[in-house]
Design a protein that fits this description.
- This protein starts with 6 loop residues before the first helix and ends with a strand.
- Mean pLDDT is 79; it is low at 1-19, 118-123, 406-413 and 610-695.
- The longest helix has 17 residues, at 636-652.
- By secondary structure, the chain is mainly beta.
- It has 9 helices and 37 strands.
- Strands 9, 10, 11, 13, 16, 17, 18 and 20 form an 8-stranded mixed β-sheet that branches. Strands 12, 14, 15, 19, 21 and 22 form a 6-stranded mixed β-sheet that branches. Strands 24-23-26-31-28-29 form a 6-stranded mixed β-sheet.
- Strand 10 and strand 11 form a beta hairpin.
- Bound molecules: copper (II) ion (CU).
Length: 695
């Protein structure tokens, strides 16, 4: 480990800093190399039930000449306690989340000017002084993966910007939103999402996880196991400008496991993070890739003296906060065995491991990411692999004394007690609108990055842009996403989940990959024809990727059925550098069942879709009983319920509720548990949950 510079000292000696001095690095403390990996602390709740996170930063930016080590940090402290950094938000389905975000960050020198920020006059969720636009001390929170409201005070990331105390902006922001009663149990996470500066704050470490309780109801095998929350992060390496043409073997970023560093530039012999497990002990590992730009190809490996490393089975129970379940919401009879799990930035995996036998060496390993990307292409010479993320050991597994174990063995049958109804029926619904999107970029130095709906012209995201996609809900759509660029990109959509139908035109076998995701990686263009992949946009002035003859592609089935998520939000590349440079667009979900039904009929008449019918939950629950006799849209009861629901929805969507003063959100008119922004289905309707099903 290189010694840490305290930037305030550097400022004093080099006279390079302005009047602003950065806070010392111990404001956001980190573990020394070789520490035991411990799960982050649970967030505490005040007497009012609210969580209270304080945002701080330390050190100056990577472009500050006084900071050659690129050491800068961002953190969220539970109740402003420096010993309780990036706490776990432990939540339950059906609860209301109240969380106060208090911004105590400082404006500091040396951060690159945000690439794209709000145009003057943009209406913000909170008033933002002109002088602050683009400042690194602005922040907000995105509740990644949560199927909750995108309205102000909920998971709203486009206009919600919390300025620092003393800056003239809003220092304390109260989030208040409901978690739907059918939210899947699993591992979600939070991170800042101010467009243009999200990457820097995430590289600085401002990321943490959220759990929704109840995984054992779907996978009883996890009950009683030691839970290990592992948060993988990345950070800048010291002064990359010194070594611009680093070898293929050298990664772009350093990484850490729960803030224990795995530094590429570390002195040889620097100890690795240490994960402890009893000999042969089964543990429930919940891994979040909270890195800004880095992917992981996770493996658990054992080795006996004199032998090679052997990949060990990982018993997958959930991806991206959704238990592995079939289209009826039924968990697999046993955990899905994998010997590697690919985690692009923002992805999560939850799995059971079995600790090594006593005397066996063990490690958590990330395989070479380029090799993985190349393995997805039968023509590996066809693209220029530019993702410099070599293999590295993430942690050594330390065997502690053996612990008594339950009788269950690897992949033992797991008798579930519940079914997951939130996404049930997604695959059999036949009312589907197809859309296509593609990733490209402006190859100029510091150029913009784009995600574009087919037929539109590529343009960088701007906060004031209108939605690129408008969907009348409830609806199910098929999105084809293509990568026509010469580096990999990662598709993520807020608020909803999807199933993968096809990868590069080949259907995905749902019995082998019964996962619902919110994030998916796209390798680079697969075939450049006669074009030069080093010059991918030659003679392509519109930057639509015409030189790419065979884009990497995925076809996704998007679930836009829940009124919980009505509103405007974003989809984007989750390589945060790309998102900050414009690879993002807005989608508006409008709760309008009548219009959705009309559109479904039109699509059906065009031969593109089948009918959608609305059925009672009790009938949808038993899919074997699906018969044409079920209730149709137009049913008087259904209409009256939907009208009531629609009325409630329109009320919570009024943008006026986003006005704020003195750091407190004004409650919307008629505020109550059922009409606050982010409210789940109104309580009086909850007894009659309506559900879409297909025939
Ligand atoms: Cu990208």
């Amino acid at each position: 480990m290189k010694p840490r510079h305290h930037i305030n000292l550097a400022c004093g000696t080099l006279l390079l800093c302005g009047a602003v001095q950065a806070a010392p690095l111990d404001v956001c403390p980190r573990y020394p190399a070789g520490s035991i990996v411990t799960s982050p602390p649970d967030a505490s709740q005040g007497a009012d039930g609210a969580f209270h996170l304080f945002a701080h930063n330390a050190g100056s930016g990577p472009e500050d000449p006084a900071n050659p080590n690129f050491d800068y940090r961002f953190c969220l402290l539970d109740n402003d306690d420096p010993a309780r950094e990036q706490p776990v938000l432990r939540l339950n389905a059906g609860q209301r989340v109240n969380l106060v975000l208090s911004n105590r960050m400082e404006s500091v020198p040396g951060f690159p000017a945000p690439h794209v920020m709000a145009a003057p006059g943009t209406k913000l969720c909170v008033p933002l002084p002109e002088t602050l636009k683009g400042d690194i001390s602005l922040t907000n929170l995105h509740y990644h993966g949560m199927n909750v409201s995108p309205m102000c005070a909920g998971d709203e990331t486009i206009n919600t910007i919390v300025a620092a105390q003393g800056s003239g902006g809003t220092a304390d922001f109260r989030y208040s939103f409901a978690i739907p009663s059918n939210e899947p149990p699993g591992l979600y996470w939070y991170h800042p999402h101010v467009h243009g500066i999200a990457q820097q704050q995430m590289l600085g470490g401002m990321t943490g996880v959220i759990t929704v309780a109840g995984m054992e109801k779907f996978y009883p095998a996890v009950a009683g196991l030691t839970e290990k929350i592992l948060v993988l992060r990345d950070s800048d390496k010291p002064n990359p400008a010194d070594n611009p043409n680093a070898s293929e073997d050298e990664p772009w970023k350093n990484v850490s496991v729960n803030f224990v560093p795995v530094n590429w530039d570390a002195t040889p012999g620097t100890p690795l993070p240490r994960i402890q497990a009893g000999a042969g002990e089964r543990q429930f590992w919940r891994v979040a890739n909270a890195a800004a730009d880095t992917a992981f190809v996770l493996k658990l490996q054992f080795r006996n003296a004199g032998q090679d490393w052997q990949d060990q089975p990982l018993e997958l129970v959930a991806r991206d906060a959704v238990p592995v379940t079939d289209d009826n919401g039924i968990p697999q009879g046993r955990q899905l065995l994998q010997n590697r799990i690919v985690l692009p930035p923002a992805a999560r995996a939850e799995f059971i491991i079995t600790g090594p036998p006593a005397g066996t060496e063990a490690r958590l390993y990330s395989d070479d990411y380029n090799d993985y990307l190349l393995s997805t292409n039968p023509n590996p010479n066809a693209f220029d692999a530019t993702d410099r993320q070599p293999a590295r050991v993430l942690a050594q597994i330390e065997t502690t004394a053996a612990r008594p174990q339950a009788a269950s063995m690897a992949s033992s049958p797991s008798a579930h007690t519940e079914r997951l109804d939130r996404f049930a029926g997604l695959m059999v619904l036949s009312s589907v609108r197809a859309r296509s999107f593609f990733f490209t970029k402006d190859p100029a130095e510091d150029g913009n990055f784009f995600i574009t709906q087919e037929g539109n012209k590529p343009h960088a995201f701007a906060m004031e842009s209108p939605p690129e996609v408008v969907v009348n809900m409830p609806a199910v759509e098929e999105w084809t996403v293509q990568n026509r660029d010469n580096e990999s990109h990662v598709f993520h959509i807020h608020q909803v989940h999807f199933r993968v139908l096809e990868v590069n035109g080949a259907p995905v076998d749902p019995s082998k990959d019964a996962t619902l995701l919110d994030t998916i990686v796209l390798p680079p263009c697969r075939d450049w024809g006669n074009a030069d992949p080093e010059d991918p946009y030659a003679n392509d002035p519109d930057l639509t990727g015409t030189n790419c003859k065979q884009p990497a592609s995925v076809k996704l089935r998007m679930d836009f059925r829940s009124p919980d998520v009505a509103g405007t939000f974003v989809y984007h590349c989750h390589i945060l550098e790309h998102e900050d440079k414009g690879m993002m667009a807005k989608i508006a979900l409008v709760w309008n069942p009548q219009q959705a039904a009309r559109e479904a009929r039109v699509l059906k008449n065009q031969g593109e879709a089948g009918p959608i019918r609305l059925v009672r939950e009790s009938e949808a629950r038993d899919r074997a009983a699906h018969r044409p006799a079920l209730l149709e849209v137009g049913n008087a009861l259904g209409n009256s319920l939907l009208a009531a629901l629609k009325g409630e929805r329109e009320e919570v969507q009024r943008p006026e509720i986003c006005s704020a003063s003195r750091g407190e959100i004004k409650a919307p008119r008629g505020d109550s548990a059922s009409t606050r922004p982010g409210a789940s289905m109104p309580g009086r309707l909850e007894a009659m949950v309506m559900r879409w099903a297909a025939f």
